[in-house]
Write a structure and sequence with these properties.
single chain, mainly alpha
Length: 172
Amino acid sequence: MLQLNENEYNPYYEQYILALVENGKGVFKNMSDSLEEIINTLKSIPKTKQTYKYAEDKWTIKELIQHIIDTERVFAYRSLRFARKDTINLAGFDQDEFNRAADANSRDFSELLEEFTLVRKSSILLFKSFDNETLMRIGKASDSDMSVRAAGYIISGHALHHIKVLKERYLQ
């Protein structure tokens, strides 16, 4: 079983990391295995639900998918910078501002699914290129240390967290 050290990530991300680390799979395997599950879940969503939100202050399903895509891109970028030994403290991002600017509800649903698939496949190839030493490299984002491998676990765990929320709150 792989164990991440507490110094590899900000405690805020623990909810995304713990379930994945406990399953004993590495970063690459978690990303690969979750792709099909996520796409199959998203493909099952009827057109009438795509702009549904379960509460007034929550995102629609399209906005939720866009958020997963944007977050994966941000964390893959962080991973690349850390892997290449970049020592700059990378800025955070405001997920709500990203969401407002994305206008996901006007997008074609099949294009969102295609974009997620391509972004995930790109992330898989990126992480496949990292050796064990590279996965252990530490960078800094939002004033917190993060290892390359922790960023990979966050990518997978974050997406799966939102798919779980989607199933429990949007599709019930």
